[in-house]
Amino acid sequence: MTERESPKGESTLTVVLAGAVNLAIAIMKAVAGAITGSGALLSEAAHSVADTFTEILLLTALRRSSKPADLVHPFGYGKERYFWSLLAAVSIFASGAMFSFYEGFSTVFGEPKEQSSPIVGYIVLAVAFVLEGTSWLQAMRQVRRESRQQKRSIPAYLRLVDDPAPKSVFFEDSAALVGLVLAFLGLLLHQLTGSALYDGLASILIGLLLAVVAWSLGLTNLRLLIGRQADPVVVRGIRQLLAGAPEIEAVVDLQTMLLGTDLILVCARVDFDDTLHASDVERACVRLAGEMQEAYSDVSEVFIEPVPRTDPELRAAVLARYGEAASRYGRAD
What we know:
This protein folds into two domains: 7-226, Cation efflux protein transmembrane domain (Alpha-lytic protease prodomain-like, Up-down Bundle); 232-329, Cation efflux protein, cytoplasmic domain (Alpha-Beta Plaits, 2-Layer Sandwich), CATH 3.30.70.1350. It has eleven helices and three strands. The protein has helices at 7-36, 39-64, 80-109, 118-149, 154-160, 164-193, 197-226, 232-243, 278-295, 312-322, 325-329, and strands at 248-260, 263-272, 299-306.
């Protein structure tokens, strides 16, 4: 599989395309904003600058998270992708939303601004819409393809995806297209009414839009950094695989964590048949780990711990962690 065909290569292509588009658009919007005096266009320029910084951070995330494991980081560097992606979300808010709010409020409450050469703004917005649409289509293709592979709806895929890059680009480009429509309306209403109020309101709405996107992406990466469990479908499959093993009488506890994109840590506590010898348990652990990794290619590390299901301290610990859900999933039987 080539890099472009791989998930990592697809994410890199999506991010690079979005970054190149945003840089070109940022320059055009800034020039048009200066010519027309439109606060909404200047806000959109800040929006594109923020998106450009975001793509740089996402590229950093893709590169650094692919470093192999070493002695200091035995589970690899996968979570670096979430750290840099979190910084990208902060960048959207700090440089995009805050500037848009400033430009909007200064236009609404400051000295009236004269509009000039609005046709320049319309042309730039039209070109920007085409370019942003190209980037959005690439992000949409990746999201649609991967959601189909996982047999999920697009909203469910975006909620559970462990690669923040396509989600970030998809959200950014979607917000960019909405922002362009808002800027167009602000520019048009300013021209028709002669009041800069509409231009300022458009800037404020663009700021709100960016703040919502930044908050959503920030929460996604925060949960991944903390240590989110694997896809529930994968967790259920692993539990069924373990429960179906002839050597295992009960799955007492099963914990999973995303170590990075396409990297899952599995920790299982199981009650083995008491008639088994130590060598039988060892062989069973090796076999089950191999079966897990064969069934789910994202499983990178497997730890299986033999425990008695009747141990009161273990039972209390499992119940304390999962509460009533423990009985639903069959934990601590």
